[in-house]
Structure formats: C-alpha cells, structure tokens
Amino acid sequence: MNADTLDAEAEALLADINSFDLEAARKRVQEIDSRYTGLPRSKETYHEVPGNDFPPVRLGGQAADVQKNEEPLPTVRSGGLLDQLRGEVETRQRAAEDAFERVDAAKTSLDRRLRAAFEYFHDLSTQLNYLKPQVARNYIFLDAGDVFRNLAWLEGFADFRTQAESDGGRIERVTFGYTLKGGGVRIIERAGHAVERLRQMLFDLGLRFECVERRNRQRELELGTFTVNDEISVQVVWRADFDNRQVVIESRNLERFGFASCRVPAEAVGPELLDEFGRLVLGKENSFRSFIVR
User: Fold this and answer.
1) Same domain for 260 and 157
2) Are residues 232 and 141 in the same domain?
C-alpha cells in the first residue's frame, strides 16, 4: 500500500471520528492494522451496557442468621426509677408555674392599684389647683415659737414611673407633689459654721431662701443672714414593693417638716384609702393611719 492509499485511509478514519461513528472508526483501525501487521480483525460487536445499576449484595446465610438471632433491645420498665424521677420533675415544674402565675397576678393587681392612685392624685391636684383652698396645718420650724401658718394651696402635680418593658412595664412609683404658701417672711442669722448647717437644712427641706454672707479680711465666713419665705414644698412617693405585696409611702413635709415613711397593704389601695389620704393632705380629720402596716 502506497502513501496515497494510507492518506486516504487516514482521511476516512478522521471522517468517521468527526461524525461520531465510533464503531465504524474502530473497524477501520482494525482493517488498517490487519493490513500492516497481519493481525486478524475482530468480528465481535461491543454494545454499551445501559445504566450503572449493580445487583444488590446479599448476605450469606451465616450473616443472615446472626441478624435474625440478635436479641431485641431491653425496654424501660414502667413505674421504675426513671418514671418516678420524671414525675417529680413534672410536679415541681407545675408548682413553679403556679407560683409564677400567682406572683405575676399580684404584680398586675398592684400595677392597677398604683395606676388608680395616679389618676386620683392627678384629678385631686387639678381640682385644688383651681380652688387653691386653705390647708389647716401649721409647721413648726426651728422652735415652738417659729411656725409656718395660714398656708394655702399654690400648685400641685402627679406623675408616675414604670419599669422597663423587659421587666413587665408595670408602674413602680407614683409621685404626688404640691406647694403650700403663706404670707410670712422670716429673717434668720447664723454665725460661723452654723451658717452652713442652716443652709444644708433648708436645702434638704426644699425651702426657698436667700442668704447674704459677711466675711472678714481673711475671707472667713463670719455671719449669714437668711431670708426664708413661708413656702413649703411637699412630696409624697408611693412606691411598689412587689415582693411583699405592699406600697411604701415616703414623704417630705407632709404633716410636719422632715421625712417620714410607712407601708400599706397593696389590697388596701382603693377609693377609701385615697379619700382618707386626700383629707390628710388638706389637714382635715381623717383615718388614714388605720391602713398603715404596724
């Protein structure tokens, strides 16, 4: 076979490959090999095996017998130790849930009562801000002969503060404040260190005052002259004690100069107690102290 024949065979082979006729290309290669090497051309036709499925592997008889003869896993005996422990856990969980619900209900009730107190104080201050009545109460200042008297309602307000939303957002404090004013003015003189003591006392009591100081050449304080108006600032805070289910009432200058504190049961905070407290504010006869926890 000459070169021209070989080139023709090669071109034919490439044509078979390009046309994706792989079986024809394989046969052509075998014909060319048989011509040059003398090897006989295979007449077998190979077909593609469809799919990639393999027959399932089956266990031998001995392995199957082992699986068949395995003992079943033991089951938990009813009424055993685990059941007893599980029952105790459930009992404690129910008790904890019941206790939480009771505490939450008590806190919600106290929130409603403090909200009612705020609304009462807001309405009370609104009425008194218009009426500006006389308040039948005298305040002894430094001694029995120094008395704030003939006081009248000047102005009042009510406010409240709530917990953070993450803690329930309930009302935790209600503030009721007001100012009483009289027509008197007092002049008080103090010397040396007594000047600062009187200044601090007036500041703590929330009294309005002016002070004129006299100092020597060494800038040492010699004398202080105080001018104090008959004007008294009263503040009452009703604070929730959720743990003890009580309301703590903290006051400044309510019945006398100074600070006082008492407690009332949460369930007592209602219209009757609030009315008695209102009478106390106005200096009227009242039974507010009968509600106080002793």
Assistant:
1) yes
2) yes
